[in-house]
Amino acid sequence: NNFELKIVRSILLLSFNDLPYPLKRCFLYCSLFPVSYRMKRKRLVRMWMAQRFVEPIRGVKAEEVADSYLNELVYRNMLQVILWNPSGRPKAFKMHDVIWEIALSVSKLERFCDVYNDDSDGDDDAETVENYGSRHLCIQKEMTPDSIRATNLHSLLVCSSAKHKMESLPSLKLLRALDLEDSAISKLPDCLVTMFNLKYLNLSKTQVKELPKNFHKLINLETLNTKHSKIEELPPGMWKLQKLRYLITFRRNDGHDSNWNY
C-alpha cells in the first residue's frame, strides 16, 4: 500500500515491458530462484539454452548470444553483478528483492513460472501449478507427494536443503531442465530415463551416488553436471549421447572424506 513502492513498481513494469521478447523470458526465468540467490552465469546460460530461449544468430555461438542477454539485463538494472572472474567477466548475478517480487508476480500471471515455498499453502499451491499450467517450477521447501501434479513442466528446480523423495514423480516427458544442485536428494526419480526431452541435468553437490544404467536413453541431453556429488563413475553407453555439449564431473577432497578413492 506504500505509494512510493507503487511508483517504483510501475517504473519497473515499464522497464520489463520494454524488453525484447527473448529477454523477457530469460528475465522471468530468473524469478525461479529464491530471493537474493546467487545465480552463476554458466548455469543460467545453459538452462536458457535448454529452454530454447536463446535466439539463433548465424555465425554466433548460442553461449555468446546468451551472454549478450545477461549484459543487457545488467545494463537495464534488471540483474546485478555480484562476482567477477579474474579477467573481469561477470561470474554471478542476483536479482534485487523488489525486482524479484515483480518478476515472480508477472511469471505467475502469465503462467510461466511458479515456486513452492513457505509462503505457499501446500495442496493449494500444487493445484495452482496443475490447473494454471506454469511450465517452470522451483521447489523451495520439503516436497510432499502432492507437490508436483503437473506433467507439462519444462523446468524443475529444487532449491531446498530439506530431504526430498523424488521416486514417485509423475511422468515428466516434456521436461527439458532438471536442476537439483545443493539439495539433499540422494536418489533420482525412477522416471528419469523416460524424460526424452531432457537437455540439462544438474546434480552438483547432491547426495546422488549413481546414474541409471539406461542413462544413455537421454539422447537429447546437452549438459550433465555431477561435480561434488557422490557419483564415482559414469554408466556405460555415454558415447550414445551425441548432443552432449558440457560434461562437468569432478570431486575435491580436503582430507575430510575417508571414502574418497580417486
From TrEMBL:
Q: Signal peptide location in the record?
A: none
The Disease resistance R13L4/SHOC-2-like LRR domain covers: 153-249
Query: Which Gene Ontology BP terms does the record give?
Result: defense response to other organism
Identification of the protein by name = At3g07040-like protein
**Taking every annotated instance into account, which residue ranges of this chain make up the domain Disease resistance protein winged helix?**
32-103
Q: Which UniProt keywords apply?
A: Plant defense, Repeat
Q: Which InterPro entries match?
A: Disease_R_plants, LRR_dom_sf, LRR_R13L4/SHOC2-like, WH-like_DNA-bd_sf, WHD_DRP
Keyword Repeat found: yes
Q: What is the lineage of its organism?
A: Eukaryota, Viridiplantae, Streptophyta, Embryophyta, Tracheophyta
Q: Does the keyword DNA-binding apply?
A: no
